[in-house]
Amino acid sequence: SLDEAAAPAEGEHPKASDKKRLRQEAHGYWRGRRLRAGDTLLLECPDSWVQAHRSNGCFAVLSRVKPNSPASKNKDAPKSEKDEDEEFKFIMSIIALLVLLVLSAMDIVNLFPLAITIAYVLISIGCITLGQAWRSISYRLVLTIACSFGPGAALTNTDVSTVIGAGLVELKVLGNFGFLLCIYLITSALSCLVSNSATVVAFYSVLRVVTIDGLSSKQIMIVMMLGASSAFATPIGYQTNLMVIGRGGYVFGDFLALGGGLTVVVGCCVSAAALVMLDLSLIHI
């Protein structure tokens, strides 16, 4: 029986018998049960097992539970010096983030030198190491953005941007709201096929020559940037879309049906906000 199997053997340590009993209970609980997508498992295994199965298609996310993580801590135990140091670093990280957001939003300090200064402070107090700071820089993204300026310059030099801009001006018959909504939908559709950085660079060269009565360049650029970041309608629009399509059992039509409607709803909200908020000078860019 289960009780006999869980009973401590002669000379067996009580703690070992407890572990044996828990294993037997766990085995009995999972007998006849099937795992489903979205289930979370807490496994006791060596570190090498995590590395060996990290690329296994059976797991969406596989990570180790660190000894000092909240899940493995005794909340009643007194805080050690290491815990206090980690808490201090956490608080400083939050403060640094708030300072970065507030000062940049209020346009008190330029974003680039402010970010460099905050990064230096975080490295100095030990929140991150210098190696981690360098590794956090996405050189592929920086290179992609830099290379995207080439096609943008080509559109300008060949007057293609002027021709496209003249065609977009014809959309002014839809009114200011309709024009901004069309800009949002067009940039969003292109962003579903290519990267958002390439979309922004390409449309910037076109929209900067567009002049619409009653609309400022700030309003047009805000709508264009947000539209380029709204790749909801295709699974290839963004990396996270590709991450969930297989695990969730989705198909291309699911993204088009739900993401297409979401794009229209968000586009209406963005266009209305750009008209009202920027027109009232509530946002300073």
Topology (elements, then pairings):
Elements: H1 2-6, H2 14-30, H3 47-52, H4 81-105, H5 111-124, H6 130-135, H7 139-157, H8 160-169, H9 175-191, H10 196-207, H11 217-228, H12 239-247, H13 252-279
Helix pairs in contact: 4-5, 7-10, 8-10, 9-11, 9-13, 10-11, 11-13
Written overview of the protein:
The protein is 63% helix and 0% strand. It has helices spanning 2-6, 14-30, 47-52, 81-105, 111-124, 130-135, 139-157, 160-169, 175-191, 196-207, 217-228, 239-247, 252-279.
Short overview:
With 285 residues, this protein is mainly α. The protein is 63% helix and 0% strand.
Q: Low-confidence stretches at least 5 residues in length (pLDDT < 50)?
A: 1-14, 281-285
What proportion strand?
under 5%
Largest sheet: none
Cα-to-Cα separation, first versus last residue: 73 Å
Q: What's the mean pLDDT score?
A: 76
Radius of gyration: 27 Å
